[in-house]
Specification:
mainly alpha; two-stranded antiparallel ribbon; about 130 residues; 2 strands
Length: about 130
């Protein structure tokens, strides 16, 4: 076999640059040999690209899943913190409401007392005026 048509390491008999027709082997032209080599190279490159892309996609899915899990965890933590803060605010608000109600009650009592005292002062003034005349 001529040197240009010998099989290279890693190539199979099917990759041989000979064309089999009707039981006889015909040598391929240089252009056909180059085309066959280009097709094999193209197939190898595409296979490597596919495996690289597949691996990258797998890594991306893993990273996305991890980020999604971390995000869910953070959201739950924030919800828990907000719930605690809101509960503290509600308790403090309830304390303020109680204080305001007590102040309103006291203010109403003092307002009523002032009205009573004004009525007594008016009565007493009237009596003093009658006595001094």
């Amino acid at each position: 076999m001529p040197k240009s048509q010998r099989l290279k390491p890693g190539l199979s008999a099917a990759d041989s640059p000979e064309k089999v027709t009707a039981g006889t082997a015909e040598p391929l032209s240089v252009a056909q040999t180059i085309m066959a080599a280009l097709q094999r190279t193209e197939h190898c490159v595409l296979t490597k690209i596919y495996s690289t892309v597949t691996a990258a996609v797998g890594e991306l899915h893993t990273k996305i899943d991890n980020l999604s899990r971390d995000l869910r965890s953070e959201i739950l933590n924030v919800r828990t913190e907000f719930t605690k803060v809101f509960e503290d605010v509600r308790k403090e608000n309830a304390t303020f409401v109680t204080c305001i109600e007590d102040l309103e009650e006291g203010a109403n009592w003092y307002a009523n007392r002032v009205v009573e005292l004004e009525a007594k002062v008016t009565t007493l003034s009237s009596q003093v005026n009658k006595m001094t005349k």
